[in-house]
Amino acid sequence: MKVSDFLLQRLSAWGVRRVFGFPGDGINGILGAFNRNDHGIQFVQARHEEMAAFMACGHAKFTGEVGVCLATSGPGAIHLLNGLYDAKMDGAPVLAITGQQYSDLLGSHYQQEVNLLSLFEDVAQYNQQVQGAADVYNLVNTACRVALSQHTVAHITFPIDYQITDAKMEVNTETGGPAKTPAQVSHFVPSFFVRNSYDGRAAVDTGAATSFGAGVPGQSELREAASILNAGGKVAILAGHGAIHARAELEQVAELLGAVIVKPLLGKAAVPDDSPYTTGGLGLLGTAPSEDAMEQCDTLLIVGSSYPYPSYLPKPGQARGVQIDVDATRIGLRYPVEIGLVGDSKATLQALIPLLQRKSDRSFLEQAQRAMKDWNEKITAEGVSTDMPMKPQVVAQALSALAKSDAIITGDSGTNTTWIARNFHIKGDQMYSLAGNLATMASGLPYAVGAQVAYPNRQVVAFVGDGGFTMLMGEMLTAVKYNLPIKVIIIKNNYLGQIKWEQIVFLGNPEYGVQLQPADWVKWAEAAGAEGYHVEDPTKISAVMRQFLASPRPAILEALVDANEPPMPARIKPKQAAHFAEALVRGQPGGGRIALTLFRDKVDDLLEQHDQGIVGKTLGAVDNALDKAVDKLAPNP
To answer: Which stretches within 14-90 are classed as H helix?
Structure first.
């Protein structure tokens, strides 16, 4: 038995069932262990190390288990970083294992030698190098413990020579004889100590513990929190990714307090979108009723969220704050709360509920429900448009109507994120995730692979843009290799759409460097061994989507959409309208009166959802900016 065999045995003891990676000479000792032993761990070969890290991150998010990725030394390890930062910033437990050059060559500028401990210092909360065969036991235990308990990234780098060193055989505590098989090696050590193979020193056997309870705050803290919430007249709940397993508790609290549940994008699945308590998302991708709730509330309960945009939260001093989070360092990070409850969101809410009083005044919730009814009618109307070119909202809404009730939806970063955030309504046991705080492109496809491996019998759909898909599209070959029936919807507008609109709306500049060379994604799917579908007629989207989702094979749906459909925020600020007009005047390609009218129609439509005071102030400023642009464009539309 080699030390690499023992490495896999320890991972198995921690409940690891699969490792995502890409082969390389720096990890050949570990790959040899995969090849020769039956340890219950599947090696999933990615086509790029970055994708392996994304797969591990997505797997961790959807399962709650530690996700594990494996890469060789030097270049392979470097490629892991983007996916690992995604895991770090969204609180996903991931263990990265990297190869390293022979231990006696370190520091000699050997080929592919990179100081991996320094490289991973920022991204990994636990970051260690194997310095001898006897290290593996406790390093793996500690790495998995840190990743799971702190919801973060851990890293172990493994010199090649230690990977292929013989593991010392210890006494089998069941039989009293030598441990000869992988199964018996689970008794590699006595119950409390592991003996160093080289000099007989003893170290504490830290063991494997695959479940970590975050505990529940004390009664005094719970009573103080309940007092604040009971005193509130207009209570808003901000429910993030850390609350997705507390759906029933969130709705029970909302019912008691007459509260509104607002969902950051990572918390999209915290409650269904048809819940009578939710106003949906918040921010640039969110809803106007959610913004209203944050502007009007006098009490804010944050549950499992570190939503990164304070400008969309209540102004400091406007609302009293209570926060529940498993990580004490996140308490008060975005909003100045009066009491922080450190603990698991589900368990903490269960302990808090008996202390809450049911409010008879439901006016705050009822006002939000009326506003949400109007918002949903508007969004639904956009999603059934028959305009040509096809609107991207139509594609997201068709998926929402046809996805299975337990489907797993993965997302990418770009304009496609806006459409899935607004026009896909979570229902049943559906799950959703994307690279939230890092907001990196290219994550949707590997997240889907990681989710499908974990849940082979569930429908898994990646909703991505053509820009993000192009970055690492080789992972369709991974889906084909392992016969993973993932479905990939590519919103094809031949643009880096989000960057285009940011250039226009935020800076007032014409687009630059964002147009993409068109590609035929149907042919690419077929070349990869998958199925390819194409749709550009909105009247045919439902029929094509049904056929696409029904396929038992990996498949791509190329949806050709209007590149000039802007991902507008729920509310448009006068400065944004003015910047849009400035960009048109400065020579935005395809601008002129058509784009100006399109934008103006959306401004009028969105602002009409707000009270007259806001309309009176904002609409006038917008109209003035657009009128000036019309005058300047008149001689040369």
So the answer is: 28-36, 49-63, 75-79, 81-90
Query: How long, in residues, is the chain?
Result: 637
Count CA atoms closer than 13 A to 137's CA, side-chain side.
22
Q: Which residue is associated with the tokens 């974990």?
A: 454
Joined together, the tokens standing for residue 111 give 């080929």
Over residues 151-174, the pLDDT tens digits come to 999 999 999 999 999 886 443 444
Concatenating the DSSP letter of every residue in 220-241 gives HHHHHHHHHHHH-SSEEEEE-G
CA 35 to CA 618: how far, in whole Å? 66
Q: Residue 258: is its pLDDT beyond 70?
A: yes
| Interval 447-471: pLDDT, tens | 999 999 999 999 999 999 999 999 9
Q: At what angle do helices 574-585 and 592-607 cross, to 10 degrees?
A: 170
How far is the C-alpha of 145 from the C-alpha of 214, rounded, in Å? 13
Task: Give kind and range of the element (H or E) at residue 576.
Answer: helix 574-585
Which burial class, exposed, middle or buried, applies to 20 when counting CB atoms under 10 A from its CB (0-12, 13-18, 19+)? Answer: buried
Residue 185's identity, in one-letter code, is V
pLDDT in tens, 489-546: 999 999 998 888 788 777 778 888 999 999 999 999 999 999 999 999 999 999 999 9
Among 614, 478, 607, 486, which Cα is nearest to 557's?
Answer: 486
Instruction: Judge whether 462 and 489 are in contact, CB under 8 Å.
Output: yes
